[in-house]
């Protein structure tokens, strides 16, 4: 675990990622955005880092060994403060089941690999902003609760507003504090029960009356909360408690009590409820939007969900064109109203000052169209489509204005609340993110199509090479043999030498074409992976090399070899090239000796020790006592057409090890070698024991 600190007061981001290269990329991206970064390489270390550092946000890889991201997120939520920290899940999985698991584990958002860094920075910024807003609201609620407790203590000490109701004479006395709670000046209360009821909110009068009657007739407790309307029209909340007093006949004659203004507490509670509702709606709609990566589906889902939540008559998405104009591309419409789908918007309607504000993230609201100060042409447009009220928020794609998310009320004017405005802004942000992902998918799909087209062309080339290029060579070889057999006796010694050179050149060209075809077919004509016994493959290769072994008097020692999930034909090609090279490049005057063996690994470079460690990779080693090579040429020997020795010394096209590397890479592995010139070489192939097929 390590932590960098660009700025002292910058938010701290904890990156939990098992891939070292990805951790470095995430660290650099977050540092460039001005954040502090802490790293952890697995889930257990990440949980320990969280307890020690208390970060502001966690970027969590979903797929990690030992403890995956879903389990880590679930355990994180059970730690102190873990239920409040935002978690952004990073995953290469795009299926719905994985998305559902991420949200069920407690993640607030997720992003798929490959990562678009601008999108990641925007999501981190949004999550931090939302987290800070929720934390501020929680602190406000705690302060309000503490304030209420102090007020209750004050009430117990008779320091709050009091009231006294004389039932026999219908005379109500309010203290100055109670009058203030009702928004009245000292001494201005009329002093009757009717005037008291008149100050209450119309929706609460019946409840207060019933509660008073229950206390007077049944002896029930009078402990109620209600709203009062001040003379200035503002609404405030009051908590009231009362006690009934009776005469000598079980008859009520008096009722006294105390009042407390709880408006701040109620407002905090209502705001918290709105925040919770907004968070719930935001999560639900975000999940629905993200279920598709097709732009049309994303936009249609967005307008349908916004119309359902806002209960508005029309919700549309307007896309801005490159020329500054645009049109309505998606719409959700209540029955009975004209559609604006496909309607083009000219610069007369969308003035430059509006675009400038939208680009800055500003929101545009009209509560009453007929009272709004808008251009005449725009007013005509809204009247034609029966628009009485409007709410528009910008959709930003990669920090550029892409379009607008717009809600219309057509049956009446409407005041758009801050709750509705904030929710729509958050959803517009999610639409922008979803659009960015959809564009990436389109680009990736296009790239895949181009790759498929390229592979098809390569296959066509392979067909041409296998037939059209080899046919002339076969004729050269055939007619050369005929020339040798019929006219060899009459040719001069120099003529025979020329003919022999021509024959060998044609044979080398034929071998080179064969090797090129083998290299190209590693991916274009690859076979599905199956369980392959390497020991059996090696025995088959040694059987094919029997003549070579007899000629060189070579010895091959085969140790224990694993069974791998792989392409059997390519595994045979790999082993044949490695063993063939080991026998070919032997030292003169010394019999070639080759040793083939394997060892298991539990990590990329960690050998397995004991039965407790579970191996994840294996190494296949081909060791010889041949001529060796200078290690400065290590990378060169795996490149096509590169040779370290002359053709007169050792036959070959320089393609064998290039083919080996291509095969190993297709199997998600690596190949390397170490050698000492004149003392032999060891070629090492590292392959996963269980790995998905690639290429």
Automatic annotation (TrEMBL):
Residues 222-274 form the PAC domain. Residues 464-691 form the Histidine kinase domain. CDD domains: HisKA, PAS. It is found in: Cell inner membrane. GO terms for molecular function: nucleotide binding; phosphorelay sensor kinase activity. It comes from the Bacteria. Keywords: Cell inner membrane, Cell membrane, Coiled coil, Kinase, Membrane, Nucleotide-binding, Phosphoprotein, Repeat, Transferase, Transmembrane, Transmembrane helix, Two-component regulatory system. The modification 4-aspartylphosphate is found at residue 61. SMART domains: GAF (SM00065), HATPase_c (SM00387), HisKA (SM00388), PAC (SM00086), REC (SM00448). Its EC number is 2.7.13.3. Residues 294-430 form the Phytochrome chromophore attachment site domain. SUPFAM superfamilies: ATPase domain of HSP90 chaperone/DNA topoisomerase II/histidine kinase, CheY-like, GAF domain-like, Homodimeric domain of signal transducing histidine kinase, PYP-like sensor domain (PAS domain). Residues 147-219 form the PAS domain. Residues 127-157 form a coiled coil. It catalyses: ATP + protein L-histidine = ADP + protein N-phospho-L-histidine. It is a multi-pass membrane protein. Residues 12-128 form the Response regulatory domain. In the N-terminal section; belongs to the phytochrome family. This is histidine kinase.
